[in-house]
Fold:
Amino acid sequence: MITRLIPELKRRGFRVGTIKHDVHGFEIDKPGKDSWRHKDAGATMVLLSSPRQMAMVRDVDHDSKLDELETYFSGVDIILAEGFKRSGVPKLEVFRMEVQREPVCRNDKQLLGLITDSHTDLDVPHFPTDDIRKIIDFLIGYFDLASSKERGRMNAAS
Structure:
C-alpha cells in the first residue's frame, strides 16, 4: 500500500520518507564490499555516501521506537511507516480477509481507519484499497499536513 501512496503524495508536492520495521532483522550490505569489511572489522557505524544516495549501517542495542527513528529524517513532509502494529501511534490498517480473519488493530485506540475491500463492524472510516486519493485526502485532513511547496507559498505570502 505504501508504494501506491507515495506517488500520489509526491504528485501533490510532498517529500515522503518511509520506515519499514522488520522484526526478523536484515542485511543491506554485501560481504566483501569495503563498507561490509569496515563493519566486520568492528565499526559501530558505517555511512555509505555517493552523489545520489546515502545509507547508514549502525549497531543498536534495542528495537527502536518510531519517535527515535524520526530523528534520522530531515527534509521530508511526511513519514509513512510499515509495521509497528503494537506502537501507540495513529495508524491505518490494511486489512485483507483472505490473509487474516479480523483486523490486527481491532482494539487499538490509535486505529484511525481500515484500508480494506471487506466489510467489518469496526466504527472507524473504511477506505477501498484502490481509492488512493481518498486515503491521501484523509491523511492530509487528519494530520493537517501541508507540502513543502504549500508552506513555501504561505511563507512568501506572509
Remarks:
- The chain has five helices and seven strands.
- The domain at 2-22+63-157 is CATH 3.40.50.300 (Rossmann fold).
- Helices lie at 2-11, 34-40, 66-70, 132-143, 148-157.
